[in-house]
Each structure stands twice: as structure tokens, then as C-alpha cells.
Fold this protein.
Amino acid sequence: MENLRLNDDSLGFLRSAAKWARLLAVVGLVVVGLAFVSEIFTATLLNSLSKPTKFLLRCIVDDTYRWVYLGLILVVTALCALPMIYLYCFANKLRRAIGDGDTLTLAASFRSLKRYFLLSCVMTIMVHLLVLLHVIMIVVMFGIG
């Protein structure tokens, strides 16, 4: 398998895949960035709309909730951006590998693609499990069934 050769058609397909992967990665990172900015704006707006209270315990709980919410926003944003970063790395390394004819860079690009798919798969499974947990909670809370 070490003497794998790519013909012109295969190289053209890989070039096209690199262009599309780069476009998807950039669009994904822009969407994640806009979502992050909108979440920070929403958190700031909710913070300014909250009524001041004279109970110290209530203030501590509200402040703790706000910091936890901000931390959760940062974690979710990082988790959503990570697959896009791997996809962007794949596209750049693949373009460089095709241009230079370097098999080591080609292997590194496919390693980035593998990481992209692995992380995307894990995140998809996690989201499906959270949706299933949500449905189970609704059934238990409302006694449906």
C-alpha cells in the first residue's frame, strides 16, 4: 500500500474537496462566532433587565448562575468550533500536500479529517442522548404513557 498513486481525476476530486471543506469550515466558524456574540449579548441584556434585590443570598445565587451560564457558553462554543478547526486544518493540509506532492502532509490532512469525523460523531451521539433524556423527562413529569 505504500506505492499508492493518485491519477489526475483523483487529484482534481481532492482539490475540489479541499475547497468545499475550507468553505464549510469558514462558514461554520462564522456561525459559531455569531452564536457566541449573540449569547453574550443575550446574557448581558438579561443581566441588565434583572431587578436588584435586597437579599444577599439571592444576589449570590444570581451572580453564581450568571458565571455558570457564561462558562457553559464558552464550553459549548469551544466544542462547536473544534470540529470546524479540524476541517479547516484538513483543507489547508490537503491543498499543501497536493501542491507539494508530499505524502506526509497528505497523511496529516487525513488525520485531521479523521479527528473531524470522530469529534462530530461523538457530539452527534451526545446531542441525541440529551434529546432522549429530555423526552424521558417530559414523559416522567407529565405522566404520559
Summary: Residues 8-142 form one domain. The chain has one domain: 8-142.
